[in-house]
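hey all, quick one before standup. I had two proteins in the batch that finished overnight and I want to keep them in one place so we stop losing track of which output belongs to which input. First protein below, input sequence then structure tokens straight from the run.
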Amino acid sequence: MKAPSPAPDVPALHRGIRLLEWIAHRPSGATLSEAAEDLHFPLPSVLRLARALEELGYLRRDERSKRFSLTSRLLLIGQPQSSTQSLSDAARDPMRRILEATGETTQLCCLADSECVLLDQLPSPHAFKYVVDLGSRTSPHCCAPGKAILAFLPDSRRAEILSKLTLQRHTPHTLTSRKALESGLKQIRKDGFALDQGEHFEGIHCVAAPILDRHGHALAAITIAGPASRIPSDRFLELGRLIAQAAADASTRFLG
């Protein structure tokens, strides 16, 4: 029996997904002519795809620069979902309690491929605060939520991700030794929380704890981030325990 022919819209679907993936790796956005040139797509085709994705809410266009960038809509698809709610919904009240207790920006992150992605954020009320765009991506080796998730992944999955990482130095404090990183992950499993002591941005400290599934494996992580002057090293243990409790509450809410 002859196999059915592919639906005529399949090539357009493939191109649309490739366009989204291409724009996802350009935090400053991109013009359609840049996309057409890099992807080797006809410009009219890229224009049609971009307009459709904009109408669906997956792309936004800056009127001044004419550059397209991703919206946070894809995060709603990519994050873990239970039978009743999203992970963001389950984590929202625990995150609010952390914000009230610490006064620092509180974030929810997960891994996408081998990158740590920001899913949700409650900004600090301080005038000077640490905030980033939803969907921002960071290598997990230099941020507290990334290390918290890595530490609590199944061994095979953690090894797979570590094999893909380039341990780029961002500050003098960044871990660039695989041996040092793996040793740090062992300590995180003992402590139940992870730290970023100016490893991604100089002067910014973060404390994070994993949200675990029923097998004790990380689904995501909750973190606080702020200036080192307000998150000093002598508060790491106190804050780590606070965030670990909130992450455990988020896990219970999510798993039901």
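OK second protein, same deal, sequence then tokens:
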Amino acid sequence: MATQTTAWLADAARTALDGACDAVREAGAGDAVDGVAPAVVTAPTSTEEVASVLAAAHAHDLAVVARGRGTKLTWGLPPSRCDVVVDVSGLDRVLEHAAGDLIVRAQAGTRLADLQAAVAAAGQRLLVDETVPGASIGGSIATAAAGPSRVAVGTVRDLLIGVTVVRADGVVAKAGGRVVKNVAGYDLGKLVTGSFGTLAVVTDAFFRLHPLPEARRWVSVEVADPAAAQRAGQAVVQGQVVPSAVEVDLPAGGPGTVTVLLEGLGAGVEGRAATTASLLTEATGATVSHAEAEPAGWGRYPWHDDGAAAGRDGDRATGLKLTTALSGVGDVLAAARDAAAAAGVPVALRGSAGAGVLYGALPAGTDAAAVAAVVEATRVACTARGGSLVVLDAPPEVRDAVDVWGPVPAIDLMRRVKDQFDPGHLLAPGRFVGEI
């Protein structure tokens, strides 16, 4: 796809940005946001600098897109405008770790892996999966990225207990901190989580931590088809073994696996693993395997198995997020496989059989019409079972052929929230649902 060029900056606007941040440069080819080229890139290193940049951009009616590590900039839709990229990768410090309180505060550009290394020294962890290699704190909040750990503790929005953000007009706002939730007004952390940077720019966040387990055990069973995957998942969820994750992995064609992660004290894990093995064998008739190391692809989206999603437009796979009630996991998996077979394309499926959140990958180069057919048929199945289908990532020609977000019942409310937080629609305009 040809890169779209945004408006040049007036001298007064560039002067204002230069005065707001020590690091301002002309944008290059590698700075385009999903094909939309900005005029300049700013690299603030503090909340105060972010606020100054946004205030300057607001005064000159400049559209701004925040960028962390750039691992998910192609998710959603391209911005309708992008004059300034605010690169927050320089905000990369763990600011506070209160081990006794199981609390950590980190800046938005901090890589998840670096935060995990910092708190692991105290025998702790943030139960947020690094679903995309190199992902940052801010990007994980902005996209509500989540992996297998959601079964045990929920997603990033459930672990987020405080946040500092900068509004479009440069005003700094804070909510929560060492408390469990905000007590008045908007629950700011939950609002910005999953908003794709369209409400405010996150600069740092407080999270609740959990102890590292003494023992971990993965118990896996081969499943011949989606129906067997459904039986295996339900058996474990209903089996009182308290799994930390229940993941199904169905590669394109052939059988798949259901893998259960058990964590805790050594003896307890051994006993629960034995019970889990019995449940899986009874549900599927297959023999189970045990491992003390995570299986290949664990915690990763299936379109990142070969790195394709991070490549050029022609190399990008199509990534789907499928949600359903737990009772519909098997039906949705089957519907996706059937739709792909009817369209003559392969589909890889992976996700939580314990939470009803699944992900699908269609290979790079798949015909856009075939992708559209798979999306339409699978979305019907998801909707019928209380869920939805979102196209998270796709090359431009595919996005032109599909409804990326699908129906959104709360769209009017979401637009009102956008208008309240960003009346001029200057933050990542058009990237989110309903072109918010």
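Flagging for whoever picks this up: Confidence is low (pLDDT under 50) at residues 180-185, 307-312. The longest strand covers residues 215-223.
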